[in-house]
Amino acid sequence: MKPLIHDSSQLAPLYARYRARLCHNDSQLGDRLLAGKMQQLAFAELSAQFDLILLDAYGVLYRGKKVIPGAPEAVARLYQQGRAVRVLSNNASQTPEHLSKQLHDMGFCFPQKDIITSGMAIADSLAAAPWQNQPYYLIGSEESLLAYAPDQQRLCVNLRPGAGWQDARFLLMCSNRDYYGQQQQQQVESLLAQQPLPIVLANPDLVTPEESGAVSVVAGYTAATWVDRFHCPWVGLGKPFAPVYQRIHQEFPHLSPQRCLMVGDTLDTDILGGAAQGFVTCLTLSGAYAHEQNLPELCRQRAIRPDFVVTSIAA
Ligand SMILES: [Mg+2]
After folding, report:
1. Could you give phi then psi for residue 310, rounded to 5 degrees?
2. Which carries the bigger pLDDT value, residue 144 or residue 286?
């Protein structure tokens, strides 16, 4: 059973930690985040001004199992108009193949090569210091393990025959799926009590919306509670952090950041992360803030103002 959060205000200090870290690395980011004009425009008119459109998945293309009305047609129009389009998702528990099939079944026309997930940043990040060749404890689904966890038979202590989970030198958090209520929690917490191991956070999202309107916690929230309780160091790979954007920069090395539009439904991952890359940002109200009564006040509290606001990518 996933723990639910009924008072989303308790998430603010946890998200503020992301902002503080990114602003620490970029002294002008705070000013840029406050300079967003939150201009309201039809998405078709807005998207025509950019060469590359990055679309968050959950809350932009679909919500739960439901497609956002008109979103598949809006995406098809972008391709017809010759725009470069990429899905940029913090999903580190599904393979790109699985996500691609899910989107195809929903009526979207994305080729699989245009889907980028934070899970794809794992192998690149862990191939370098300080993580290279270090045994790790993986928190994630079997799918994420097979798809993303590098060198699983040799380094992942959950899988390595004969290896003790006490051998882990860091935690790799892909998702909480298949995790709640399991023996893992006790293992990890006893491990962290002995030594505050670093946490590599592939999905920094704190919560995900449920059909009921409540939100349930996901990997970022669990990581944040461990960071607070055990004083673990941590690094983020997914939005709003830089590693997930590396493939974009590799694929479009000559693109001016101002020709790229980042579209997402949350301020603290999509808009913050896009602004940190120098991209123009667009908040869509088709996801996390679909029921938000006072968006300007929320943006003031978070000190994050998107450049543009749309009702949905179909509007
Ligand atoms: Mg989203």
Report:
1. -125, 155
2. 286
